[in-house]
Specification:
The protein has helices at about 25-95, 100-120, 120-135, 160-170, 180-200, 205-210, 215-220, 230-250, and strands at about 15-20, 25, 140, 150, 155-160. It has a 3-stranded antiparallel sheet with strand order 3-4-5. It has a single domain (about 70-250), classed as Orthogonal Bundle (Lysozyme), CATH 1.10.530.10. By secondary structure, it is mostly helical. About 65% of the residues lie in helices and about 5% in strands. It contains 8 helices and 5 strands. Helix 2 packs parallel to helix 5, helix 5 packs across helix 6 and helix 6 crosses helix 7.
Length: about 250
């Protein structure tokens, strides 16, 4: 019986190949690997560009925010300079040559800072100072009899009151002579006036208490007595005078 012929073995198609450690990698496979590597490199490059662009955008946004903040601060500084200049002109119109230019500039700066901090019109603080001390930082208060009252400085605040306010504000070691320092005097005096206005829930009563003392005002109110209004009227008169002068100086 004739044996069937076995099928001839299929021969692998010949082609170019490269041997790596005993294994043959065909050129087509190598080309595919090269293409994949190129795609990965391109993807990496694109990712790097995106990251760099994101960082650049972030830096640009941060710089824009900084410039906007600088613009706001600059506008605020310019406005403060204009307001201080207005107050200097206003004080020069009031005190004239009675005090030095350096004192006028310092008082204008202090009035501006304290009016901003406590929400007063600058002219109002100037009016209180005008009535209390006539803008003399070293003023010593006196009773009608001529004896010293113990009130000191620009806003004529007494040492006992000043020490109480200093403790509230965390200002330790206040001495009587410190009240002749315009900055300390204005800080404590304005804070005291604000405390009284808040306590009596009325600017008029707070201002009267600043002059007469809170105990006197409270007692008069309890007895339904008429409070003397002369001090309040003097401060208001000075306030309206200063407002008018401020309008005139702004128009010049």
């Amino acid at each position: 019986m004739r044996q069937p012929k076995s099928e001839p073995q299929r021969r692998r198609p010949r082609g170019l190949g490269i041997m790596f450690t005993g294994k043959k990698i065909w050129v087509s496979e190598l080309a595919s690997i090269a293409i994949v590597c190129a795609l990965l490199a391109a993807l990496l490059s694109v990712s790097l560009v995106i990251i760099l662009n994101e960082r650049a955008i972030h830096d640009a946004d941060r710089r824009i925010a900084e410039l906007r903040a600088e613009k706001i601060n600059l506008a605020r500084d310019i406005e403060a300079m204009r307001e201080k200049d207005r107050l200097i002109k206003l004080m020069n119109a009031v005190v004239g040559g009675k005090t030095t230019p350096a004192t006028v500039h310092k008082l204008a700066d202090l009035v501006y800072k304290n009016s901003r901090q406590y929400g007063y019109a600058p002219e109002l603080l100037l009016a209180v100072i005008a009535v209390e001390s006539h803008f003399n930082p070293e003023a010593l208060g006196r009773y009608r009899s001529g004896t010293l009252s113990g009130a000191l400085g620009l806003m004529q605040i007494k040492y006992v009151t000043a020490r109480t306010m200093a403790n509230m504000l965390g200002m330790e070691g206040i001495e009587p002579d410190d009240l002749l320092d315009p900055e300390i005097n204005m800080i404590l005096g304005t804070a005291y006036l604000t405390t009284l206005v808040s306590r009596f829930k009325s600017f008029k009563l707070g201002l009267l208490a600043y002059n007469l003392g809170p105990t006197t005002v409270r007692g008069s109110l309890a007895r339904n007595e008429q409070l003397p209004m002369r001090y309040y009227e003097k401060v208001l008169a000075q306030y309206y005078r200063l407002k008018a002068l401020g309008v005139e100086s702004a128009e010049d």
